[in-house]
Amino acid sequence: MKIPLGRIAHARSGDKGDTSNIGVIAFDARHYPLLVREVTSERVKHFFGELVKGNVERFELPNLGALNFLLHEALGGGGTLSLRIDAQGKTLGAALLRMEIEIASEELG
Amino acid sequence: MIRIANGQGFWGDWLEAPVRLVEQGPIDYLALDYLAEITMSILQKQKEADPNLGYARDFPPLIARIQRRLIERDVKVIANAGGVNPVACAREVRRLAPSLKVAVVLGDDVFARLDEFLAAGHAMKNMDTGEPLSAIRDRILSANAYIGAFALAEALALEADVVIAGRCTDTALSLAPMIHRFGWKANEWDKLAAGTIAGHIVECGAQCTGGNCQVHWEAIPDLANIGYPIIEADHDGRFSITKHEGTGGRVSVDVVKEQLLYELGDPKNYITPDCVADFTSIHLKDAGPDRVQASGIRGAARPPMLKLSIAYSYGWKATGTLVYSAPQALDKAKAADRIVRQRLAQLGLDFEEIYTEFFGVNACHGPVAVPNPDPPEVQLRIGVRGQDRKAVDRFTRELIPLVLSGPPTATGFGDGRPPVREVVAYWPALIPRELIQTSVQVVQ
Fold it and tell me: Which backbone phi and psi does B287 adopt, to 5 degrees?
């Protein structure tokens, strides 16, 4: 079944220059493998479409049940150059939580 | 065990937070972070206009306000409020709070040394683009090296009540008291990494005590009286994050995890002047109400290079808005956007970028916003950026005429035409650490 990522994870996002970082954290550590399987760099890049001009990197933090994403060239130049209202990508984490992921109902445990 | 509180996540954070931290419970050190990447350039301009300025002006009045409590409770303050003029900042603190001993940490400001560095063959390439610094040499407004915690610890060793630094790392403000009180050595990487990660957790103030938190945010108690964070640090590198009893907010593993990931790059290589911290080694556990314990943290050797924060004049920008009401609010805003762009093109004006957002429809989430086909109102928000100030200024005059000459129901123009703002850009670069010598000075 399809569920929004926000069913099993929370997130916080911010900036480093023109790169936005999104930390995605499983509410329940048992769901961390689902994040690893479902929330790949490619899917995050595809989800944001034209918003992310560069590549998406992913780092794993199994100790925190969390993934860290770097979305390059995602903030309209970043910092002071950006003309966006959300120049620091503060809201991109909340956006990503709406991405749908595919899991079997028994995996929700 | 020592208690290190953070009462300021950035310049402009809640003025009451540091006051409440010294009033509402025990702390030993009060860390205050005032500097963002471009703050230094703003302060440099203020210093050029007046040699007695160039520091965080909110800081001396704050110290004046809490000075009695600092003495009664033996609380020491560590702040990067010095900006590009730490000595002037210290003098103002001394003027307002004459009974406090004030020390400054110097050596981060390399604005006057850039040509010396270039002549010695240090290209100071932009870490993002690879361009050499020479490309923007004549437009540089400020240049500072990020310095670490050991210089701040030296100032604490002089028994200063208030330590004022310029561009030190945010994490150094919290790590310095641990180095000072526990006698940590410069090669105890695991302990330095632990103190650095503790500093990272608290450096954004209440963002680790329930502020900006997505986990059941509606249930986080009393955000109006949110408690700012306190590190309870042990000599062996273990620490807890907590807040004063009776304050609002929430400290839990979920909340602390969100902040650990905030503005994080590669979690195994969190590079500071003091060490390289490994975020994948952190073990967290809830250890009582509003208390999270961290242990197991590992670190690696500090890097041979220090990061430079260089600000330079880039160009100009302006952002203007108009509001359209239903029916067809979005269609009207889109039509107005097309008209503005056509008029700018007809004027032959050249911009690096023209960017349009429809506030209420897609401003925050862009192409992934939840569709909102017939909103009751939409704010058209157009921004331009370019090298030509006159072109940007002309743009600021092109929105309000649409109230009479564009699609119907335009409003929200009461503030007049938008200001033209200078764009100061940030140039991250590296420099060998041996070129940066810090010193500590007690200001009389």
Answer: -130, 45
Q: A95 is in which domain, residue-wise?
A: 2-16+27-108
- Please report which confidence band the pLDDT of residue B39 belongs to, taking 50, 70 and 90 as the band edges: confident
- Summarize pLDDT for B384-397 with one digit per residue, the tens: 999 999 999 999 99
Residue B28 confidence class, pLDDT cut points 50, 70, 90: very high
**Residue B218 and residue B250 in contact, taking contact as beta carbons nearer than 8 Å:** no
Are A48 and B261 a contacting pair at CB < 8 A? no
* DSSP letter, residue B81: T
Q: How many CB pairs under 8 A join A and B?
A: 128
Residues 6+ apart with CB under 8 A from B135: none
Residues near B92 by beta carbon (within 8 Å), at least 6 away in sequence: B55, B60
pLDDT score for B373? 85
Q: How close does chain B come to A35, measured CA to CA in Å?
A: 15
Q: Nearest CB to A83: which of B281, B284, B385?
A: B385
Domain ranges of chain B: 2-108+146-303, 311-424
**pLDDT above 80 for A91:** yes
Q: Write down the pLDDT at residue B64.
A: 98
- Amino acid B41: pLDDT: 83
On whether residue A21 sits in a domain, the answer given is no
Give contacts of A 13-72 with B, CB under 8 A.
14-18, 21, 23, 25, 27, 47-51, 59-66, 68, 70
Whether the Cβ atoms of residue A37 and residue A60 lie closer than 8 Å to each other: no
Residue B37 above 80 pLDDT? Answer: no
Q: What is the mean pLDDT of chain B?
A: 96
DSSP states of B364-377: TTGGGSPP-SS-SE
User: Is A22 domain-assigned?
Assistant: no
Answer yes or no: are the C-beta atoms of B195 and B277 closer than 8 Å. Answer: no
Domain B311-424 part of CATH 3.30.460: no
In sequence order, which residues have a C-beta less than 8 Å from that of residue B323 and are 6 or more positions away? B377, B378, B379, B380, B410, B411, B412
